[in-house]
């Protein structure tokens, strides 16, 4: 009878240890997803670096923010070609960029106003 309780005790200790390491792994992957997400908002070069990091650390959170940041980069670049009106609208893109960067750093999947849904639908090649 004592042997049976020792086996249960060992199994319980193994499951606790396994759970501990699974939690650490989840935390590390979540932290890396946040890093990828925040870096993706730091210019086009930051987005390229984030894409390279994303290849090793895929997550829904990171892919969401990669799509949002690429959409903002494309929108800002296209508006830059339109004199005056486009330049004024780029101020709105900068505000949306700050909004998205804040939410990426906080760990939220918040779409940017107005165009966030469009970015998620049409930039779906980032999975």
In brief:
It contains five helices and no strands.
Overview of this protein structure:
The protein is mainly α. 21% of the residues are buried. The protein contains 5 helices and no strands. The protein starts with a helix and ends in a 5-residue tail after the last helix. Helix 2 packs antiparallel against helix 3 (60-80). The chain has one domain. It is elongated. The chain has helices at 2-40, 43-56, 60-80, 85-106, 116-122.
List keywords for this structure.
127 residues; mainly alpha; 5 helices; elongated
Ordered list of secondary-structure elements with their pairings:
Blueprint: H1 2-40, H2 43-56, H3 60-80, H4 85-106, H5 116-122
Helix pairs in contact: 1-2, 1-3, 1-4, 2-3, 3-4, 3-5
Overall geometry: elongated
CA distance, first residue to last residue: 53 Å
Rg is 21 Å
Estimated share of beta-strand residues: under 5%
- The poorly predicted ranges are none
Fraction of residues in helix:
over 70%
Order of helices and strands: HHHHH
Q: Domains counted in the coordinates: how many?
A: 1
Number of helices: 5
Strand segment tally: 0
Mean of residue pLDDT?
86
Task: Give the biggest sheet.
Answer: none
Task: Find the structural class using helix and strand composition.
Answer: mainly alpha
